[in-house]
């Protein structure tokens, strides 16, 4: 029989790499264990991404920096902030981010895609993902990914990103044009971290994705075949990791502070204390206090 393809996204593959236990709770446990409260930095990121996506939907003559700021204000998400004052402070910072960023863009230079879903397959995986922006420059496609975190990124971040490499391969497949350049646009600093892949380096990323998929797929199949009782729909799940630790071991690290499922993971709680939902924003403000 033909081998069944492993259907995935870059996020799913990276979840397996980061922590198989978190992967299991995210993608396999049904009903899934309750998550912790929403993160304020995710609200900032989503608000900025939505404003930039909607800016390209405006008529050409309306694509101004001020319009981008207005879109940010209208679509501002408030989940996870410490209080209204912090939300308002970050709304102003985010507005300044998108207005400054858009001021450096030619509004007539239409992207090939905005929030564009692309997909490709190999003999082992069927992978898809959504790209923030896909440009065409000099006859080649360019993958653009927006970033709003506190850390300035480097070309090594772009070079090593499994997601960006997969987006490049999938974009080329879907649109039948070469795609080798990937870019991380860091809005807080205005810096762009880019990398020019070769066919060989893209192939290495695909091979890596297949290797990760092989490991995750084997664990998925064993999980599905297990007779371990699971909660019924409507029941509050009691999280018991013991039947699964061999297949889905925890991978404790400092990242456990930011895990949505930290409350269900004793090893993660021991590895790193849970952060407040707004902790990342407090750290960013400490790095660059506003006047």
UniProtKB/TrEMBL annotation:
The transmembrane residues are none
Q: Does the keyword Ribonucleoprotein apply?
A: no
Alphabetical keyword list: ATP-binding, DNA damage, DNA repair, Exonuclease, Helicase, Hydrolase, Nuclease, Nucleotide-binding
Cite the residue spans of the region called Disordered: 217-245, 268-291
PD-(D/E)XK endonuclease-like domain: which residues? 9-266
Task: Report which superkingdom the organism of origin falls in.
Answer: Bacteria
GO molecular function terms noted in the UniProt entry: exonuclease activity
**What Gene3D superfamilies does the record tag this protein with?**
3.90.320.10
Q: What is this protein called?
A: RecB family exonuclease
